[in-house]
Design goal:
Among the domains are: 102 residues, Orthogonal Bundle (DNA Binding (I), subunit A); 66 residues, SH3 type barrels (Roll). Helix content is 29%, strand content 24%. The strands form five sheets. Strands 4, 5, 6, 7, 10, 11, 12 and 20 form an eight-stranded mixed sheet that branches. A five-stranded antiparallel sheet has the order 18-17-16-15-19, with no helix packed on it. A hairpin with a 4-residue loop joins β2 and β3. α2 packs antiparallel against α3.
């Protein structure tokens, strides 16, 4: 199993070429480098290398509403893969909750207060949950350009044609048809329905686009009438009405009809940020190229590569037509945030219930990643050395999350820091691929 290539910095903190993991271990064993950063893994030389020969790399980005894939390519080889999970839904939920609390206070205390000012939004305004996707993507572009000789940035500037999805007949049969026709709609359906058959739940098989209401019974080609089914279920359903086909499964029928009517919010989120991300990238790099999502999927399917956000990033653009993936596992990064500044947390009814502690364990903060040596077996955790993320510091210690269980730690004696909190959680992809 081969992990990502390792970033290498010169002694003056300027970037050098990425090195193979075996070469990185050799440099560490000989004492020629020190660990500069753990996630992603960055080494720094102790002695300066003069006039290094740099091999330019391409940073490839597959933007999405919930996940963004990153890949670094040198020649035709993919050296590094990463997937970034955004927290836009959490931000939206927190802001809606806060707005509800404020509205409640205003109605109780200042019932007839007039409007304070005109609340018109400026041109180019993005909602906080959407702007978060832009800012986190920009942050990681800056980091990669600081650690690696990035010469070009290639971005999948996908545009979901929501008008075409809702009304396919808008411009006739010849509307933008070609080799890549329909790829964006199929990709949207795969994301919406979880890449599995909606009737039997089978995944990792070939799926077919299925009309919920058959066209022979008045159904349309609108995306709200489309779903995914395996070949066997598609043939069994035929031109039956979905209510007749699922008459014995009322819960499944209710779920499918409810999800089919959901708005295209993910497509709208991607459309809102696609120009802003490219504009931000052009400020950081002189060479930025944009490609379509259809081209990305065409490259991936023609090479027989599995579906993932980081592999989609590797297949972006013309340079993704023929690639060699040297990394079996991608680095998975989850946006966690930096907590909040609420003095009291509210309960389900909106009343202040839990007072946040002002004093916590001074040696550590929530979000730090540490190695903990558990000396004795506990209720759900066996003795051993674990790498875990700090959850809740208190006055007398802190808690770490190990295999889904909270474990209390009251001393720093058997604790070693791995990575200080920077608002992200890190782990490696559990499944591997064969290049």
């Amino acid at each position: 199993m081969q992990t990502n290539y390792v970033f290498l910095l010169n002694a003056d903190k300027t970037f050098l070429n990425m090195v193979h993991p075996a070469r990185a271990r050799e440099l560490q064993n000989k004492g020629k480098v020190s660990v500069f950063r753990v996630y992603p893994y960055v080494l720094i030389l102790k002695n300066q290398v003069l006039n290094p020969l740099l091999h330019p790399c391409i940073l490839k980005i597959d933007t999405g509403s919930k996940h963004t894939g990153f890949a670094i390519q040198s020649g035709d080889t993919i050296l590094f893969r990463m997937e970034l999970e955004h927290r836009g839904e959490t931000i939206k939920s927190d802001l809606s909750k806060r707005a509800g609390f404020r509205n409640g206070r205003r109605s109780r205390n200042t019932r007839y207060r007039k409007a304070r000012f005109d609340r018109k939004k400026p041109e180019g305004w993005l909602a906080p949950s959407i702007k978060h996707r832009l800012l986190t993507t920009e942050t990681w572009i800056k980091r990669f350009m600081r650690y690696c000789p990035i010469e070009t940035i290639e971005i999948e500037q996908v545009r979901f044609d929501t008008q075409k999805m809702l009304k396919p007949e808008i411009d006739g049969v010849e509307y933008q048809q070609g080799t890549l026709f329909g790829y964006e709609v199929r990709e949207y359906l795969l994301e919406k329905w979880g890449r599995q058959c909606v009737y039997c739940g089978e995944d990792k098989i070939a799926l077919e686009v299925e009309h919920i209401q058959p066209k022979s019974n008045g159904g349309t080609d609108r995306v709200s009438n489309l779903t995914l089914a395996c070949h066997e279920c598609n043939q069994q359903k035929g031109n039956q009405d979905i209510k007749d086909f699922l008459s014995g499964k009322p819960d499944l029928l209710k779920r499918i009809l409810a999800e089919a009517k959901q708005p295209l919010k993910d497509a709208a989120a991607v459309n809102s940020t696609r120009f802003a991300i490219v504009k931000s990238a052009k400020k950081l790099c002189n060479s930025v190229k944009c490609w379509t999502g259809g081209r990305t999927k065409f490259n991936r399917c023609s090479q027989g590569l599995p579906k993932s956000h980081s592999i989609d990033a590797a297949c972006v653009g013309e340079s993704g037509e023929k690639i060699v993936i040297k990394t079996d596992q991608a680095l998975i990064i989850k946006c966690k945030g930096h907590g909040n500044r609420q003095a009291r947390r509210a309960n389900a009814q909106g009343f202040p219930a839990v007072k946040n502690a002002k004093e916590t364990y001074k040696h550590i903060t929530a979000g730090d990643i540490v190695k903990v040596d558990i000396k004795k077996d506990r209720k759900n955790i066996k003795a051993g050395l674990y790498t875990a993320r700090v959850k809740t510091p208190t006055k007398k210690g802190f808690e770490v999350l190990i295999d889904g269980f909270r474990v209390s730690v009251s001393t720093m004696k058997d604790v070693h820091f791995v990575h200080r909190n920077d608002g992200y959680g890190y782990e490696f992809q559990k499944t591997t691929i064969c290049s």
